User: Fold these one by one.
Assistant:
Number 1:
Amino acid sequence: MWAGRDAMTSTVSGLAAVRFALDRTSPVPLYHQLAQQLEAAIEGGILTPGNHLGNEVDLSVRLGLSRPTVRQAIQSLVDKGLLVRRRGVGTQVVHSQVKRPLELSSLYDDLETAGQQPTTRVLHNETAPAAADVAAALGIPEGGEVTVLERLRFTHGHPVAFLCNYLPTGLLPLDTDRLQVTGLYRMLRSAGITLHSARQTIGARCATAQEAARLDEKEGAALLTMQRTAYDDTGRAVEYGTHIYRASRYAFDFQLLVRP
Amino acid sequence: MWAGRDAMTSTVSGLAAVRFALDRTSPVPLYHQLAQQLEAAIEGGILTPGNHLGNEVDLSVRLGLSRPTVRQAIQSLVDKGLLVRRRGVGTQVVHSQVKRPLELSSLYDDLETAGQQPTTRVLHNETAPAAADVAAALGIPEGGEVTVLERLRFTHGHPVAFLCNYLPTGLLPLDTDRLQVTGLYRMLRSAGITLHSARQTIGARCATAQEAARLDEKEGAALLTMQRTAYDDTGRAVEYGTHIYRASRYAFDFQLLVRP
DNA sequence: TAGTGGTCTAGACCACACG
DNA sequence: GTGTGGTCTAGACCACTAC
């Protein structure tokens, strides 16, 4: 029985071929090290779709880890959509190219990763009393002071979007020069504000004459609209924005994972 | 010290007031029972934003559970965005109204939960050879047989969307009569197909004369467009669709959680 | 220094799928 | 039946935060 198993391992493609290197002195948790190496093996094609991962108990013995630790590593990849577990069956690599789950995306980052070399022109950057909708979105009293930000975003010198954002005044320094060379979300991050969730609405409408002029479109052209309120990890609203995109030059593209 | 603690509990609003009822004979896991009751306490306002949950060890003693079990319950609520944990600080109820995370949403279900009484008219339901884009999306050979579905979705008797879907033929029975009274995703679910992920693109354009006529709009009206490919839990593509929505009557509205 | 969550262990029993 | 993942226990030590 045992001899048979050992003899078989040499013919098993997949997990048996993976070399794991766990460093107990590293500050990186063991389950995370294991998850990273499993993910690398999947990305690198060593573990191919449909490959069984073998049962958790054997794996934990082989790695010298406890089963809960191995489970935690596997679970994180299941959450990422790379693995599927079935009771009584086993753990398998998922069959397809699920790339990145939906992120709370920043237009600036999206454009940059798409190689679009985004640039920004700041049209307004000043404080003003909050209108009713802004106050409601940010959870502050109507008429309270907010910072109003209006920006035009360009790619290759052509306008793509008109961005209007409202933030609680004093939340972070909003230097106009810095806003011209980076994205708002990056500035939030580097100010120590971790975004946690957001509520957004995506719609469409035809461009008014003013909007058309601003975005270098014809009047009546299709525009994508987005309103978003973003919250930090304590649940405090940190940003409300109404954005307008040229539909001829931009579309929202994202991956969803079903939460079980 | 201990006396002081006990004396304080009576003045502590929040967790101390919550009565937990755990049933060890239930098939529902203990961590899930606990998570549900904590969630109910938050929804019901017994635990209010900012309330500390108290340390995990005390809670596990009080409940007669092990700490890992309590942690699992708390973690599930952290994943849902209801709680925040900070090392050295504690666990707190999040400060805002984060309601539902983004789901792989079905238009039919969305409309129904909004009380819009959706109805459907099936325009086409037949098999045809797959065009290049459809074949690529579904991962089948070009010219391979697919089922083509064209539907109009109404609310209160007015058209909202034109839905065109492609599915691998034979994946499930697609009875036209049933499609008229329910949604495609419900039929997939009841056929034992669990959706796992999807890739979607949302854009906008102006209505052509034909589209305008079909959706009871004027030519040139703004339309929202969505293309989506959905995958089941083995990573197999089970559905590809191109949808068109009247922007005057529909917008995408959803909540995002940042995945840490 | 004291208290918190973060990580990890070494077991155990159960429910479910498959042959 | 046999093997799988699902759940649960009762401890342990560490890293971080706040005072």
Number 2:
Amino acid sequence: MSLDHHVPGIVDVAAKAGVSLSTVSRVLSGRTRVSDALRAKVEAAVAELGYRPNAAAQSLVSGRRSTVAVFARNTIRYGYAATLQGIEEAARAAGYVVLIAVVESADPDDISRAVNTALSHPLAGAIVIEFDKVGVETLAALPPSLPVVAAAGARRAAGDTPHAFLEDAAGGYEATRYLLSLGHSTVHHLAIPATRPRSGRAWGWRKALLEAGATVPPIVQASYSPTSGYDSAQKLTSDPSITALLCGNDELAIGAARAFQENGRRVPEDVSIVGFDDQPFARMWMPALTTVRQDFVDLGRRTFGLLEEWLAQGRRPADSAVTPTLIVRESSAAPSQERATA
Amino acid sequence: MSLDHHVPGIVDVAAKAGVSLSTVSRVLSGRTRVSDALRAKVEAAVAELGYRPNAAAQSLVSGRRSTVAVFARNTIRYGYAATLQGIEEAARAAGYVVLIAVVESADPDDISRAVNTALSHPLAGAIVIEFDKVGVETLAALPPSLPVVAAAGARRAAGDTPHAFLEDAAGGYEATRYLLSLGHSTVHHLAIPATRPRSGRAWGWRKALLEAGATVPPIVQASYSPTSGYDSAQKLTSDPSITALLCGNDELAIGAARAFQENGRRVPEDVSIVGFDDQPFARMWMPALTTVRQDFVDLGRRTFGLLEEWLAQGRRPADSAVTPTLIVRESSAAPSQERATA
DNA sequence: TTGTATGCGTTATCAT
DNA sequence: ATGATAACGCATACAA
């Protein structure tokens, strides 16, 4: 009945129901007893008015926050997007809303800008997707007063920010062992950028090689994209001693596969190629890609779970690991006889 | 110096600077003249205290909102994720923050739950990624009082919600004409779910076929995933009259390509396969995928631009189209001679 | 069990 | 140009 586009507030509900402000508030929060009669009247008024609580006002007065910020370098790439999806899913189930803040680069300006705008909103806590340097820096820039957890690409130092992480060192180790068991004398590695030394896929790869007494070839550094994989693999295609290549992700793997194939090296007859992640396209690849599956959605869910636990229990939760699994498909095989005997 | 984990407010700044509340507010908003002397003192206090304005309190009293909600069916799939990225980028540049609300299904419960939780926060406006039925329904569920714009997969009816959209009918048309020009007698279509009749990729495909006087084969319906493409294409692989297949997206295309190849039909020698989107993996495919590129990031940026314009000008903006481009690569070719003469 | 009064951090209005 | 004060919508301590 208001003249303007008036958004109904708790006062309007109270008026319509013929009760006081506080009664309405109590009915809505449900934390105090209210007689059935009044409760019914209030609920009717709420429905009729289409009343929606104002979260801003709520958090202002109660200090209770219902939004969590997710800081991420990007939202497109598979791992990031899937992690975000998992976080959102868990957050929504728990009654939280997620605010997404992409941090363009590790430039302190970009970081503090992202942090400042996000923190000006009432946050219950923050999650940073720490798959890269930007994530590491963002983590460092967040105030200690805010509950912060991380979705990490690899285990972080203990005593640090609580985090859920991918046991990707284990994945790299398993994939390398598998390749070695096929008869390859060593395995090369086409790597994504590392966030931490002595951890991650590359670390597991190295460990497997050392244990087997195989030579550890120099790591070939790439970025994340298929083109980067293609370009970086070029320098390897002419070396016939390379018979197995472990790639930091599936995109690198398909880029590398193309590079080899264009040079007349067949996959897997001449070179075995193994990826990481198991993106949806991997199993449709020709040949279907052998890869280390990482469940990013689960990682996201767990990460939010950590934050939720922290908020509920009031103390920092224990870290949580998600284990990758090797999916053997068509892009890997024993080295061809001719090479083996060569 | 506060005993507790006290978050500094405008009062603390005022006290430290030795000025009144209002002066601090004025310095921060910058909308009123303040003497340089006081301004300097305030700025020093702000820096020293690490003061951050409380957006909740601001929007509560001023009615000015700085967050926009994005409703989407999902955040993983390429088109959605890239659109989100574009939206976020533009929003951040304009000083807005984005809240992501994924809507699980078209179930009214899921929709109203998502809408309610998002709308309980102070929103400047909302954006719905309307690539599917869920998006269409969500759009319908949003209150008319809120500025809402859409990022659409195809042009919507006029007079409707302002939207930026992919001219994908044009893309379907161009791709089909291209295939026809290669000498294929007709083109089959493996479709993603349609949101609207008489629009979209399928509509353009149909138009090109009709114009050329070619027969219009029944549409083969698929979902979005590579496996769906693979499964749905199975029934086509044994039909030698099929020499060209236009797929609703790249994932379908690679699934279909595998299905054909497993059945001994070579790509492109026996069947030409064309995708849609130009996802990063497309150019690395073997053979590299001919596809219709759609710039989702740009779509996202434009969509936010629409909302921004609406908010600034106070009136609904005009729709905005993003044009796809056909990228010819290796997966398409003229039909083989044997078939042509058969 | 219900109602009244106070205040959360900020901007806007009104004085000075 | 600057300061005092009233709201914004809601939760809660306190009074009834």
Number 3:
Amino acid sequence: MSYNEKQVQIMETAEELFAMNGFGSTSVRQIADKAGVNLAMISYYFGSKEKLIEALVDYRMSHVRLTLENLLKDDSLTPLQKMNLLVTEYVDRIVQRHHFYKIMVTEHMLDKNSEITVKLLKMKQRNTEVLQQIISEGQQKKMFRKDVDIVMLMSVMVGTSNHALVNREFYRTYHKLEHLSEDEFITLLKQRVTEEIKAIFKAQLTYEG
Amino acid sequence: MSYNEKQVQIMETAEELFAMNGFGSTSVRQIADKAGVNLAMISYYFGSKEKLIEALVDYRMSHVRLTLENLLKDDSLTPLQKMNLLVTEYVDRIVQRHHFYKIMVTEHMLDKNSEITVKLLKMKQRNTEVLQQIISEGQQKKMFRKDVDIVMLMSVMVGTSNHALVNREFYRTYHKLEHLSEDEFITLLKQRVTEEIKAIFKAQLTYEG
DNA sequence: GATACAATTAAACAACTGTTTAATTTTTTT
DNA sequence: AAAAAAATTAAACAGTTGTTTAATTGTATC
């Protein structure tokens, strides 16, 4: 599916509002007003509010797919280097698309069996397969341990980075980093989160190092 | 503040619905119906929907405060033992009160400067102080490293355990644990998450071991 | 048993909800 | 330039929203 300029504008405005106020607390009129389009255009283009968020999910997920899978087929990299690359890419991505990932986290927590839950599950399965592949390679090359809980490692990576991002203002205050610009601070935080997860992965995957 | 039976019933029903459908997508009529009380009773007791969720937060937070702080003053425990105890207590708590912690996670992510954000910040500050105290003790006794990022460690613990809980069905399917009862499975998951975080803490805090 | 206060109710309130309609304008195709 | 298709609009739709009202019932206090 490809979207024209106005459709993208609506989706990105909705993304921001959903992330800031929650899906249920955001009205289509708010979206229309902020996006500067007529109210009826949302139904015209997307059909409904529910289908709008589904379109947003498709729109954001379509760009993700190819990035990693090709990068990780690189034969010149060791399994651990691939894991490190994966962590860097993931943290970069959720920082860059923090609005979108906020929405994903909230939707993930709701019990309803929506279209979005299905799309999320598919993405998780793809990501797990990539991870599985790297780890299997590391195990074959006797570099990684045999008893690795992949899903748990994903919880560490996804959970830690999400929380660190949501908790960023607390981090900033606690470490007295107010003198940094927003960009400088985010760069620093990103780096520290990445290093933290890499360290955990190394300790858990390899025979200590 | 103390609440009568009916007030508690309303708060706990609201808690379940907020966690399952989100705050914005839950109507006061749904809450009244499910709780078996008249619609007007919610305004009568709490004033508004917003104040209802604030009351819920107070209600749930009031029970938490004392548990840890006393346990951790125990002189017969080493700093590492205290950290392990803290992890166990935390994971236990969010599993037992998973509805409530779902709500906290979602509220934490919203940009609005609500009463709840303030309450959450205060709780975080108290928790950080407790953690700070244990770690300082470990550093004085030369058992813990000097360069420890407390806030990052909290992100690891909070983020990982939240995500593991939300992701539990994926974990169950991936590890083919469908034959376990819900209780058995949750007990297993809880144990694994606890062990995972303990291992990370040990590796990051001590001089390897 | 009267008085005062708390609890409960159904009904009403105005504002807002997502979505549709039907008319009009703009753009594209022929 | 005519015809067809797409985009845009203001207005209306019926249903839901959170909250309040005013009347009634229940329960203590004197």
